[in-house]
Amino acid sequence: MIIHAKAAIIDGELCNNVKLEVIDGVITSLDVKGPADIVVEGTLIPGFVDIHCHGGAGYYFSAKNSADIQKVIDVHRENGSTTMLASLVSEPLESLKEQILRLLPFVQSGALAGIHLEGPYLSPHKCGAHDPALLRDPVISELKELLDVGDGAISMVTLAPELSHGIEAVEFLVDNGVVVALGHTNADAEVANKAIAAGASVVTHFYNALPTIDHKNPNITLTTLLDDSMALELINDGHHVDEGATELLLRTAPGRVILVTDAMSAAGGVDGDFTIGMLAVKVRDGVARLTSNGSLAGSTLTMKVSFERLISEFGTSLEYASFCASTLPARTLGIEFVGEIAIGKSAHFVEVVEGKVINTYRL
């Protein structure tokens, strides 16, 4: 198959009049001759890579029915997310194991790139929309059980490093090929630095469920903002993070911001009453909040909207927005077959016209 694009982002640069050859879903040439099978009038960029997503289309990745899990995948693919991790919230250990087993076939088939456990190893002081009664310390034997059940599918775990065994857990997970994200944490700078030294490399939804930056008492938020080794997730929906704080993040951490959705079940849908785990959630005007205390409860965001907002609201270039939505998340998670338009990569594309996503291709 030959694709002729009016323009495409190759090696981070905008190139005109690009002809790609795709064989068996893989890019085999960036300069091929012959008539095109697909003509793209807009700009081709790599498909979005969402490393933090819980649900959409009215369902969660924790659904018991495989058809409902597929509906979550489908609605986000329609909005540009050609590669995704399935994120699971804090649950009892046995429930988590059951959810992981239901997701395994989707990872094995390539429909999902992996599983992200956001909890239950979180701080009760920064639990957000996680049920505090379900939170626990990250004991190594328990982590090993989960990894064994996951059979290589667990790609990332979010944890609070100040918990008992927290640093040991970071080391164990990294040693077993799992990306560690620091989040839902109240850690001070000392603990944060220990976690980074142990191999943590991501911050889950930066600013959210983290302590406020304190100019006299440095904490994990300031430490990770200034540490060039840390990738920082951003929920760019205009509700989770103020525009000024987003601007600060983009200026202070260039090349380190990863767009994520943290989408709950209402993503791609309509307002209504929902749940996260066992907690009741109300979605009004596209904003999800816990019924009990009004805390934000994930987003109704899609990567399409997040990407477009980065360009329209913050003046980000198409090339850099693509880096934040595709290239950096793929590199950070070690997902080698996506994130760029290059020989040997999967033919996963998004077509953009004037900063707007108009088509998704997963060939």
How does this structure look, described?
By secondary structure, the protein is of the alpha/beta class. It is 29% helix and 28% strand. The protein folds into two domains: 1-47 and 339-363, Roll (Urease, subunit C, domain 1), CATH 2.30.40; 48-337, TIM Barrel (Alpha-Beta Barrel). Helix 5 (189-198) packs across helix 6 (220-226).
CATH superfamily of the largest domain: Metal-dependent hydrolases
Query: What is the overall pLDDT average?
Result: 96
Main-sheet strand order equals 5-8-9-10-11-12-13-14
Task: Report the structural category.
Answer: alpha/beta
- The CATH topology label of the largest domain is TIM Barrel
Helix percent reads 25-40%
Query: What is the subunit organization of this protein?
Result: single chain
CATH class of the largest domain: Alpha Beta
Number of individual domains: 2
Strand content: 25-35%
Order of helices and strands: EEEEEEEHEHEHEHEHEHEHEEEEHHEE
| End-to-end Cα distance | 10 Å
Radius of gyration, taken over Cα atoms and rounded to an integer in Å: 20 Å
* Sequence stretches where pLDDT stays below 50 over 5 or more residues: none
Under the CATH scheme, the architecture of the largest domain is Alpha-Beta Barrel
